[in-house]
Each structure stands twice: as C-alpha cells, then as structure tokens.
User: What shape does this take?
Amino acid sequence: MELLPTRWLGRRRFAARAGLVTVSLVLLCSGCVLPARSSAAFEGKAVESAKTAAGAVATARLCARQASSGKLTAAFASVTMADAEKDANDAQSSFDSIQPPDHRSDRLRDRLDSILSKAVSALARLRIDARRGHLAQLEHRARALQTIAKRLEQFQQAHS
Amino acid sequence: MKKALQFTLGILTAIGGMIDIGNLAGNTEAGARFGMGLAWVIAVGLVAIVLYTNMAGRVAAISHRAAFDVIRERLGPRVAMVNLGASAALTLLTLVAEVAGVGLVLQLATGLNYRLWIPIVALALWAILWWSKFETMERSYALVGLTLLVLLAAVWALHPDSGDLLHRSVHPAIPHGEDLKSYFYLAIAQFGAMVTPYQVLFFSSGAVEEGWTARDLAVERVNVFIGFPVGAMLAMALMVLGAVVLQPRGITVSHLSQVGLPVTLALGRSGLWLVLVGMFAAVFGAAAEATLSTAYSICQYFGWQWGKFVRRPEAPRFWSLLVFLLFIVTTVALIFDPIKVALFSIVFSAAAVPLTFFPILVVANDPAYVGEKTNGPVTNVLAVILLVLMVIVSLATVPLLVATRGNG
Assistant: This one.
C-alpha cells in the first residue's frame, strides 16, 4: 500500500525547492554582506562603499546649498540630511563588516574607514543643524564636506 | 457639455493616475545612473500599457464584465488561479510600497517619521474607500495629482540641452562605473514601473463600476490614447531631472527626498510644495487603486459580488477583503524599507505582466466577448511582439535580480 502518493511527494519536493529559492533570493536581496575572497574583491567592495558615501555627501551638499538660499523647508532639509547620514552610515557599517582577506586589504580598510567616519560625522552635524532649523548655516557647515567628497572621489579613482 | 466634461476628466484621471511610488523612485533612479540611456524603455512601456489597457477597457465596456471574471471563464479556473496568485501577490507588494510611500511624502512635509503616518494613511484609505463614491474618489486624487505637472515646469526651468538629451536617448551608453547587468536590471524596473498589472485590472473593473457600454468606447479610447502618453511625459520628466541634476553629482536615488531636490533646485519652495502635493495625491491614489484592484480580482475570480457600487450588506466578502488587505499591508509596511519594496515591486511587476496580459489578448480576439470589436491585425502584431518581449523580460528578471543583488 502506498502511504505517501508519488504526486504528494513531488509536491513536497517542489515546495521545498521553491522555499529554498525564496530564502536564497531574500538573503541575496536583503543587503546582507557576502565575504570578500580576494584582495581584488575587497577592493571592489571598498569602491562600492566609497561610491555610496560620495552620493550621500553630494546629496547633503545639494540640500545644504538650497536650504541656505531659502528653497527648502526645515522639515524637508532635516529629512534629507537624515537620509544622507543613514546612507553613509550604512555604507560604513556594511564595509566594516567585511573580513579583509590580507594585510594590503587591512590598510585599504583603515584608509577608507577614516574617510567614511569623517563623512558620517559631518553629515550628523548637518542633520542636527537642520533639525534645529538653522538652515542659513547649512551651506557654511557643508564646506567641510567638500574635502571629504574630493577624498572619496580620489579613492574611487585610485582603486577602480 | 456633460460629454465634454467626461472626456476632460477621463484624460486628467489617466494623467494623474499613472504616476506612483514606483515611477517616482524608479524613473529618477534610472536618470541618475544612466542618464537618458533608458528613455526608450518608457516609450516601449507606454505602447504596451496603452495597447493592453485599451483592450481590457473594450472588453469591459462591451461585455460588462471585468478582467478576472472573463479570464477565469476563458482560461479555466486552474490557469486563472496562477494568474490571480501572481497578480494579487504583486499588487499587495505594490500596495505596501504605496502606503509607506504616502507616509514618506508626509514625512517630507512635516518632518515626522513615516512609520507614524502609516496607520493614519491606512485609516484614511479605509475611510475613503468605505464612504466616497467611486467617481469622486478617482477624480479628486487624479485632479490633485496633476500638480505633478510641476515636474515639466522644473525641466523647463533648468534649461537642459534638449539636443544632448535626445542624442543620449537614441544612443544609449553605459556610464563609467556601471555595467550591462545593472543597465538591463534597471531597464526591467523601468518597464515594470510603466506596465503595472493593477492599473490594467483597475481600469477594466472601473469601466464596469462606472457602467460603461459600447457607446462609451470613444471616451475609453481618448482616456487611454491621450491620458497615458501625457502621464508618460511625467515619467520622462523624472528621468530628465535625474539625468540633469543628480547624475553629474554622482547621486543615486535611495530616498524620496532625492526625487524632490531637482524640483526645488529649479523652482524653489513653491516647487517643493507643489511636488509634495502631487506626490501625495499620486501615491495615495495608487494605493486606493491597488487596494481595490486586489479585492476586485479575488472577488471576480471566486464569483463573489464586488464593487463600490454595491451596497455593503450585498457584498460582505468584498468589503471585508478591503479591510483585511489594509490591515495586512499596514503591518508589512511598518517593517520594510518602502523605497526598496517599491523598486522590487516594479521589477517583479515586469516579470508577472505576461500572466495578466496574455489572457486579455486572448479575450480581446474572442467575438463571444467583444462582438465585432475584436483586435485588428496591426494591434495583434504589435501586441504579440510586446508579449514576446514581456516573456523574455519575465525570464530574465530573477537571474538579473540575483546577479545584481537587487541593487541594479
């Protein structure tokens, strides 16, 4: 006597495979960090993080200039600054969570991490000022980001 | 006069109702990363949505039956169940993005965290779906959504080099730092942002709700053939703003605030308020459409009484389903990043489109449903070419999603 019909077993296998594919897709797409197996791969991930942070810095600079010239409301400016800070912070924490495969990668990590920390800190300052409604000061404050933006750009050019 | 008003309102409805959170994030992101290199996808998507919405509207106006009702009868319950599963799951994903998207717009206006707004948005949606008339609801958000025409004004005010934009549109190139995988991934996202199954299902069910007949086919055609192209111009404007303002600065779009920055750069604070009002109306309207669309599809498949025109005691399953959907969506929207959900939903939308569009093509060629008004040969050739393209897109979606890790 057939305890489990073949068709039912087939369905269970299909469901298991579908579940596996779904879990893999979710893991792939959830932004979880995959390990870097070589220094070249690590370098690639470093460039990716620098690019994300550079985008966040550019957003904050654009926002600061507009806020200081009265084009933005305090609410819009503070949300935009907070978003930019979050992006830079996420880029730094996901880069920091990658295991560097060798000593060369250690040096690369230290170099980028220092720039990213400065970016996050400067963006946090801008977010605080925007939340306090000090919009007129934002452009002046954002000047600190100019150097950081240049260093992030140089980093991308040197390693891509 | 009444007829003229019907035409005007129909066109305005189509324009205001076309843009949603997927377009706002997706079209701007495409412009920010690939300049005008993906403009051709908006054109292809426009042809597809116009062609298939026109078919769905014609079927509904002549047969007085909405899409899923006919799909189930024509293709049988099993095949229709696959269609229903795919389209309902996808529309729910879209709905999550839209509900949270309204919260994001309110966050930009008030500074209060978008999660605080989500339950209020869901409650407002419920109240409007529960109490307002179909036409009032549809036309009010669509008309307010017209403030999104500020996007065209922003493009105008920025004085971009139109020759250069056109050249970059017809000679797409991959910018430094991007690759072909990302290009095609975002192409799929653009296509999905233009061709969302819920819009077609909503249009078809809406035609039944408004009691369209064969005599309304002229109104239906005007809505589709004028309204959607103007709506597509707004999508193109988002891409241009991304290409002109964000791309040169190396900004990619991960937040709704970045969509507003090019407008404020061009038009200042008045532009900011107009774009926020427009975004609110467009995304709120899309959320209402997606909620109704999901409930319509499920009820039509199972043969339950449906529609806002039906009194609540006569369609208890339909009305309960609306409340249940909003409850589920509110819970999910509080957990996930809405912009990521929006970008995933438009990618999966492109993948699921053939399942909704193929049956519509079949039915639009069946005299039993549309009488003499079956598709002409040109429509059929175009529709089949687009369907083949949609199947290719559908097959490529998951591999590209894995290859790019969902980041384009």
The first helix of chain B runs from residue 2 to 18. Residues 13 and 363 of chain B are 26 Å apart (CA to CA).
